[in-house]
Amino acid sequence: MPLVKSKVKLSRSLGIPLVPKANKALERRPDPPGQHGKRRRTAKKSGYGQQLLEKQRLRHQYFLGERQLRNYVARATAKTGNTADNLILALETRLDAVVLRAGFARTIYQARQFVTHGHVLVNGKRVNFPSATVNVGDKVSLRESSRSLDVVQLAIASGVVPPYIVRNDAAFEAELIRPPTREEIPVICELSSIVEFYAK
What we know:
The protein is an alpha+beta fold and about 200 residues long. It contains ten helices and five strands, in the order ααααααααβββαββα.
């Protein structure tokens, strides 16, 4: 499990918004935190440094530990096809990621909490493993007692559902209708750099 620290400070360090309130912080102070932040932003990174940054960006956008991401990369490499495509597809079809994309949560941290606390059903059955794989045709929904939560209502009102997911607002249910393409997945990182990082 990744260490929990200020999500805004972490967002500034990585240069990407991990939570909605980080957008304003990045506009006001786009440089990394700390007294030498501006110098760090303008300093030219080595090839390894850039690969490390991209790896950290991906890891935190899916709220994964180092070992978890390493295992996902190993499995993606073992499969036939493009490793980067295999990797992002495996991550995007995690249950917590689908809960986030369906608009039932505003952040991956919130989505992870919903799943582990038993608020989420898959095909009508409670699943509390965030890493569970959602397959095409699976229906992800919220328990009836969880639907009136303020955080859920706010997420549904503000979220934008990607084209590979269809959401039924009346039933608080979402279905993965097809595998997503790389272009449709709103993740900010250079996947090829991450594959190269782990190939060493």
